[in-house]
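Practice problem 4.
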């Protein structure tokens, strides 16, 4: 079994179950259906496990026992649901349920990946471009790598960990922890609970229609729901049911089930039409759970995009704040320098009062005119010379702004 299931692998598994559903619904036996899939599997990697599965079935094992003997080829959720299908004699319905489940997972995964493409590009663009101004002026490769890959590599590791943790190949303890964690997320938690109730209703309807006893049907259906918490809850019901309580009474006392499920199940049990009620509950919770998952898949990329844009806006505000601060510091430096020069000139005139008694025309002709010309030239040079504070702004911050504006203009042309 792959470490991380991609949308393509989910589609292959959905195709595997869909073909089994079609063949078994048409009256082909399970060994014949598997032999047909061995000759034309949905992927070459399925040929060897199907051969081993056929060998286990020929040895006298049931389907669920054979799948468990294969190891981790299929997740425990699939095996539990197929085990319930064996007891109910409705393997074709279980195959179709699994095909729809993996088809929906593949479609959601592709939707999220497609919608996340632009926010991911924008985030990488910001990570690489914003620190480039400092690298351009200093040439420090290590600092630039720390400011870019120091952010990206931990983020990559976190995303891979979340994807790996959400796979269904782990044991019950791991899945219990992940269920507790995911159920705390507002939309995702409710969607997962609704889908678990949908699988519980479908399995329970199939088992009861096949004549399985009510308590055994509940335990098998809870295993097939894919929820470890729901399975533990139903297993703890046996003493209450053995003491004479009906499942409807036990369900009514549990806060795990929504009010709609409790009322509908109680009505179906009293009226004797529990199979119809369970079918309606399956359709309702399957529709609601899928709708919430699709809404989450649509809004998650938008939230990421908003966070990236807020980060870029913060960097822009930070740049202009530093720019105007540098301009203000440069103006203050120039004002202080002009005031110091003025005080120096006033002091020189006060220390030499006798110079005014000299011949103005002679001194002006021989001394004052050259000094005045020199002073004028000095003033012109000081006016044309770049101010120290503004020089720092142009060398560092202006480079960052130019790169940022050019990059954003290019991204707008690419996606606009």
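Answer key:
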């Amino acid at each position: 079994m792959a470490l991380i299931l991609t949308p393509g692998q989910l589609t292959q598994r959905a195709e595997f179950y869909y073909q089994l559903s079609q063949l078994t619904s048409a009256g082909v036996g399970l060994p014949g259906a598997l032999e047909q899939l061995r000759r034309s599997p949905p992927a070459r990697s399925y040929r060897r496990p199907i051969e081993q599965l056929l060998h286990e079935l020929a040895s006298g094992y049931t389907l669920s026992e054979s799948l468990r003997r294969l190891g981790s080829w299929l997740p425990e959720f699939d095996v539990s649901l197929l085990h319930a299908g064996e007891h109910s004699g409705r393997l074709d319905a279980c195959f179709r349920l699994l095909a729809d489940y993996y088809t929906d997972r593949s479609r959601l995964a592709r939707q999220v990946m497609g919608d996340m493409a632009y926010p991911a590009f924008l985030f990488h663009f910001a990570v690489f471009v914003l620190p480039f101004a400092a690298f351009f002026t200093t040439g420090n490769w290590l600092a630039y790598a720390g400011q870019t890959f120091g952010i990206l590599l931990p983020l990559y590791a976190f995303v891979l960990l979340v994807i790996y943790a959400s796979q269904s190949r782990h044991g019950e303890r791991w899945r219990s922890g992940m269920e507790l964690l995911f159920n705390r997320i507002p939309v995702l938690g409710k969607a997962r609970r609704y889908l678990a109730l949908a699988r519980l209703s479908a399995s329970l309807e199939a088992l009861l229609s096949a004549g399985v006893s009510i308590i055994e049907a509940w335990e098998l259906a809870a295993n097939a729901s894919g929820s470890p918490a729901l399975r533990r809850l139903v297993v703890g019901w046996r003493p209450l049911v053995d003491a004479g309580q009906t499942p409807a009474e036990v369900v009514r006392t549990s806060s795990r089930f929504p009010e709609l499920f409790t009322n509908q199940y109680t009505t179906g049990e009293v009226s004797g039409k529990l199979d119809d009620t369970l079918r309606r509950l399956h359709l309702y919770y399957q529709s609601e759970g899928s709708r919430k998952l699709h809404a989450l898949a649509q809004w998650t990329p938008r939230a990421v995009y908003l966070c990236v844009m807020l980060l870029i806006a913060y960097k822009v505000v930070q740049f202009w704040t530093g720019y105007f601060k540098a301009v203000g510091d440069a103006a203050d430096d120039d004002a202080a320098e002009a005031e110091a020069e003025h005080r120096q000139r006033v002091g020189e005139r006060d220390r030499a009062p006798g110079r005014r008694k000299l011949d103005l025309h002679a001194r002006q002709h021989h001394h004052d005119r050259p000094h005045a010309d020199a002073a004028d030239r000095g003033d012109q040079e000081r006016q044309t010379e770049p101010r120290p504070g503004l020089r720092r702004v142009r060398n560092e911050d202006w480079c960052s702004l130019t790169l940022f504006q050019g990059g954003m203009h290019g991204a707008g042309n690419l996606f606009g």
